[in-house]
């Protein structure tokens, strides 16, 4: 039996939004307040975010990197992981302008992916 995600009240989420790696108010809007759907979306994103990032880090193919960055950014925006999406957006700009992504940007992205993943795991564990 699936446990429900403990989503904070709307007011507490507004107060604390900037300190969370996922905007739970945005996620609630995207899932029309369906907590079971929120939980499933979070689980799917947590499973996939690390896979997508590792593929990004491993590829040297420009097209694969471009596609991977786009996928990761879009998925991040969709669930409200705006800080991660912003880092990925910067990586997309670097790729477009310089033809590569700076290793420091990838390190920043790795930290953001780790933070989002840990946050989700903490949410769904409650």
Automatic annotation (TrEMBL):
InterPro entries: HPT_dom_sf. It comes from the Bacteria. Keywords: Kinase, Transferase. One of its GO terms (molecular function) is kinase activity. GO terms for biological process: phosphorelay signal transduction system. This is Histidine kinase.
């Amino acid at each position: 039996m699936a446990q429900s995600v403990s989503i904070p009240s709307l007011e507490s989420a507004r107060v604390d939004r900037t300190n969370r790696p996922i905007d739970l108010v945005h996620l609630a809007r995207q899932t029309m307040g369906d907590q079971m759907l929120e939980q499933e979306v979070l689980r799917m994103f947590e499973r996939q975010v690390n896979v997508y990032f590792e593929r990004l880090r491993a590829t040297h193919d420009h097209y694969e990197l471009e596609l991977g960055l786009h996928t990761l950014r879009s998925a991040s925006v969709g669930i409200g992981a705006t800080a991660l999406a912003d880092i990925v957006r910067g990586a997309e700009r670097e790729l477009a302008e310089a033809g590569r992504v700076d290793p420091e940007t990838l390190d920043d992205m790795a930290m953001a992916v780790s933070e989002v993943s840990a946050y989700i795991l903490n949410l769904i564990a409650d």
